[in-house]
Amino acid sequence: MKVGVFHGFVAMDGDGPSHGSPFELGAIIASQDPFAADTVAVELVRLDAWKVPYLRLAWEREYIGNIEVVGDKMEDFVEARKSFRIPAGMKRNSITRWLKVGRRYLTAVPYIDPGKCRKCGVCAKSCSPGAISFAPGVIPSVDLSKCIRCYCCNELCPHNAVTLERGLLARMAGRILER
């Protein structure tokens, strides 16, 4: 029998690991079903597992059955969860939930800050769909039509040069709601 175990003694919020902040969660999650373990982990930090694309697909394809939480209840982690900052790529507001427009206008996209970029190419090497082009000595460029919004470039850049910027409509909606 195979069992996957991961700890959340210290968890990461925000756009981790490179741009997140560690916080004490104090959880251990173990399961024979990696999708079930990920579902519990996601919901433990107040996110909706249905909004995580691969978990949604796993539920739709019935790879995930009933999940039984044994031990501490989710409610026992309320204090640790209060300060959890949602990753930029998962933020949504009430207006963007209802808009059925192309994802390029709604989702967070990687932006390479020329002032921070050291032209090392780590972002391009970490980009599995090949959306980031890189040539030595040149600041990499992102082809958003190829970008799958996995944000590995953001997480792995050793110079914090790759940031995430919300799409145009999401930014506009956010400004309207802030008024």
What characteristics describe this protein?
alpha+beta, 179 residues, globular, 2 domains, Alpha-Beta Plaits, 8 helices, 6 strands
Descriptive overview:
The protein is of the alpha+beta class. It folds into 2 domains: 4-86, no CATH class; 94-178, Alpha-Beta Plaits. 30% of the residues lie in helices and 21% in strands. The protein has helices spanning 34-44, 53-60, 78-82, 94-98, 103-106, 122-126, 152-156, 168-178, and strands at 4-15, 19-31, 109-112, 132-133, 141-142, 162-165. The strands form 3 sheets. A two-stranded antiparallel ribbon has the order 1-2. It has a two-stranded antiparallel sheet with strand order 3-6. It has a two-stranded antiparallel ribbon with strand order 4-5. Strand 4 and strand 5 form a beta hairpin. The longest helix has 11 residues, at 34-44. It is globular and about 50 Å long. The termini are far apart. The relative contact order is 0.16. Residues 94-100 have low confidence and may be disordered. This is 4Fe-4S binding protein. Residues 108-137, 138-167 form the 4Fe-4S ferredoxin-type domain. One of its GO terms (molecular function) is metal ion binding. Keywords: 4Fe-4S, Iron, Iron-sulfur, Metal-binding.
